[in-house]
Amino acid sequence: MYQQMIFVNLAVNDVAASKKFFTELGYGINPQFSSDDCACVVISDTIIAMMLSKEHYANFTQKEIADPTKVSETLICLSAESREKVDELVDKAIAAGGTAGKVQDYGTMYGRAYDDLDGHTWEVMWMDPSEVKG
């Protein structure tokens, strides 16, 4: 059965620094789709983050490239298997140079956010599986 994937493309100031940041979070880099202008960050089998130099990113859009340190362009939210895994990933991001963001604790749903080196906001969220209706 076909499994749809998502490729998040983000403009970054320094591809090498982004590559280092995301490997420190425990993610892999796919060298087949990486270059000096692009880092292919493998988040899971179905989620890929493409960190593109601003020059390379500009090849894919006619719009002005947002400065995520000044405007919110998107909120990227990833699930985690537990509250502890939420804290673990966000703490790694902060230790690697990211900036701590908002904490959301609703008991059955818990999340934290961080901004990466370029200001892109990543949320990490856990939801109690017994509360999710199927």
Morphology: globular
Specify Rg, calculated over alpha carbons: 15 Å
Main sheet properties: 4 strands, mixed
Number of strands: 8
Following the backbone from N to C, one meets helices and strands in this order, namely: EHEEEHEHEEE
Strand order of the largest sheet: 1-4-3-2
Q: Tell me the distance between the termini.
A: 21 Å
Strand content: 35-45%
Give the number of helices. Answer: 3
Mean pLDDT across all amino acids: 96
Approximately how much helix is present in the residues? 10-25%
Task: Enumerate the spans where pLDDT stays under 50 for 5 or more consecutive residues.
Answer: none
Sheet/helix structural class: alpha/beta
Description:
The protein is of the alpha/beta class. 20% of the residues lie in helices and 35% in strands. The chain has helices spanning 15-24, 54-57, 83-95, and strands at 6-12, 28-29, 38-42, 47-53, 75-79, 99-105, 109-115, 121-127. The protein has a 4-stranded mixed sheet. It has a 4-stranded mixed sheet with strand order 5-8-7-6, covered by helices on one side. The two termini are 21 Å apart.
Supply the key terms.
20% helix, 8 strands, 4-stranded mixed sheet, single chain, globular, 134 residues, 3 helices, alpha/beta
Per-chain topology:
Elements: E1 6-12, H1 15-24, E2 28-29, E3 38-42, E4 47-53, H2 54-57, E5 75-79, H3 83-95, E6 99-105, E7 109-115, E8 121-127
Parallel strand pairs: 1-4, 5-8
Antiparallel strand pairs: 2-3, 3-4, 6-7, 7-8
